Amino acid sequence: MDELDRWKGKIALVTGASSGIGDAIARALIKFGMKTAVCARRKDRLDALAKDMAGEAGEVLVLQADMEKESDIKGLFPAIRKKWGQPLDVLVNNAGTGVRKALAAGDTKGWAEMLNINVLAVAIATREALQEMKGKGEGQIINIGSMYGYQDRIPMAGMYTATKNAVRAMTNTLRTELQGERTKIRIGEISPGLVATEMRPKMTNGEFTYESYFEQFHPLLPKDVANAVLYMLSTPPYAEVHDILIGPMYQAL
Ligand SMILES: NC(=O)c1ccc[n+]([C@@H]2O[C@H](COP(=O)([O-])OP(=O)(O)OC[C@H]3O[C@@H](n4cnc5c(N)ncnc54)[C@H](OP(=O)(O)O)[C@@H]3O)[C@@H](O)[C@H]2O)c1
């Protein structure tokens, strides 16, 4: 893990860190020793995370932000510079949401929410982060996609699937653009299968429980995705991880 050490003391931003995967990623980065800004709407959750992490190797900056508001997203970057005197080195685009409905019955508000948070916010945060990283000459962007980003016919998840396909397209396109510029900025995606977080129960108004899946397979845990983030960061500067597809054993893609 020597290569990972080069990120110690560097600055990360994790979006959607108030629960699930983002919370686990933020904790892993802070424990490892990164200065980590965490954002979400539920500030009480972020404050609790910061309290838990007191005494760990890294530092925490709590920033309340609604990823549906461009001004909130743009405000994250100067706040980070103000706190640590430098722009960020690592951006983890994790915030996301899902509404489970057939396309024929989908409501426009739910679609807009998914498109705004899962796609537009990723594009805006990435664009803003790139301005900062280009000044520094290097950096790492990590997009949390989904195994659904490789699917295009999942009933009840048509728009969510569309957003995660869009994330995969943006990730790969940006890599090609950056390769053309020969920067030292890497972009990679992590595409998990089912992870036990608040998301699925929320998507089904509590009808879904992870326990109901256990006969078929054991869902991933948020820490499994956090470990994939650490792996991505641990690769040497001459290597670039494009995507890590990780699903529960026995879950079909
Ligand atoms: N769980 C899975 O099975 C699974 C599988 C593959 C990929 N993913 C992806 O993993 C990512 C994290 O999801 P999760 O499973 O950890 O779900 P989660 O526990 O529901 O967490 C979602 C996070 O996104 C934040 N968020 C949602 N809307 C936001 C908004 N408008 N502004 C700011 N933050 C917002 C939430 O914070 P607030 O509500 O406090 O704002 C929360 O921190 C998502 O991109 C999701 O698509 C999940």
Main beta-sheet strand count, sense and barrel state = 7 strands, parallel
Shape: globular
The CATH superfamily is NAD(P)-binding Rossmann-like Domain
Distance between the termini: 30 Å
Number of self-contained structural domains: 1
CATH topology: Rossmann fold
| Major β-sheet strand ordering | 3-2-1-4-5-6-7
Radius of gyration: 17 Å
**Uncertain stretches of 5 or more adjacent residues:** none
How many DSSP helices?
7
Distinct small-molecule ligands in the complex:
NADP nicotinamide-adenine-dinucleotide phosphate
Total strands:
7
Percent in helix: 40-55%
Proportion of beta-strand residues: 15-25%
Order of helices and strands: EHEHEHEHEHEHHE
Mean pLDDT across the residues is: 96
Second-tier CATH architecture: 3-Layer(aba) Sandwich
Structural class: alpha/beta
